[in-house]
Amino acid sequence: MKNNRMLLLAANTLVIVILLGGCANATDSSTELDNLSQKNNTPIDTAYSSSKADSTDITSNIDTMDTDNNKVESKSNDDPVKEEGSSTDANTTGSLKEEYLKKLNEMEEADRNGEVGTTIAELEEQEFERYNKWDEELNQIYAVLQEQLSREEMNQLREKQRNWISYRDQEAKELSLKYKGGSTESLEYVATQASLTRERCYELVANYMK
User: Fold this and answer.
1) Residue ranges of domains in the chain
2) Closest alpha carbon to 154 in 204, 113, 98
3) In sequence order, what are the residues at sequence separation of 6 or more whose Cβ sits closer than 8 angstroms to the Cβ of residue 197?
4) DSSP alpha helices (H): ranges in 79-119?
5) Angle value at C-alpha 178, between 175 and 181, nearest 5 degrees
6) Who contacts 182 (Cβ-Cβ below 8 Å, separation ≥6)?
7) Mean pLDDT computed over 166-174
8) Exposure letters 5-17 (e unless 16+ CB within 10 A, then b)
9) Could you tell me if 161 and 142 are in contact, meaning their C-beta atoms sit under 8 angstroms apart?
10) DSSP letter at 180?
11) How far apart are CA 184 and CA 177, in angstroms?
12) Residue 172 pLDDT grade (very low, low, confident, very high; cuts 50, 70, 90)
């Protein structure tokens, strides 16, 4: 009888030990599950946050690229395109010859319609004014030709102009000698210079100006 009680007590003790061991294992398993859950959740949350940040950076870069492209396109559209061979200069140069011929005709018309002096002194003064006027115009025409002509063409014209000046003065002298010693000698000289200078203006514009 005593032995049966001892066996029953031992069996109960064993059951209690087994039950306590199971509870302990359950607690450990729960703790491990919680730890595992925490371990798994932390990387997932971090990865999501990192991925979101990277996505924001990419979007920002694309916006920046689009902005830069828009700036380039805007600049390209705003900048005027300069075309070569503009017709403005050609038209200006082409009409310059006609403009000067018109001006010379007006100057000559003014000479014909001008009041004529009644004395030798007045006539001589008028011829001096006429000569100075045409000589000044000749110098302006010569300056235009220096810009239009090539270096070789200008060198040739310069030599011809020197020869023409010698011709003009020699011609004026020869014609005035017909009145040598008379009151009209100097008048003839300056009048010839004025007329030849006027003719030279027409020649340079007609033959050289573009």
Assistant:
1) 1-75, 89-207
2) 204
3) 131, 134, 135, 138, 168
4) 87-113
5) 120
6) none
7) 98
8) eeeeeeeeeeeee
9) yes
10) T
11) 10
12) very high
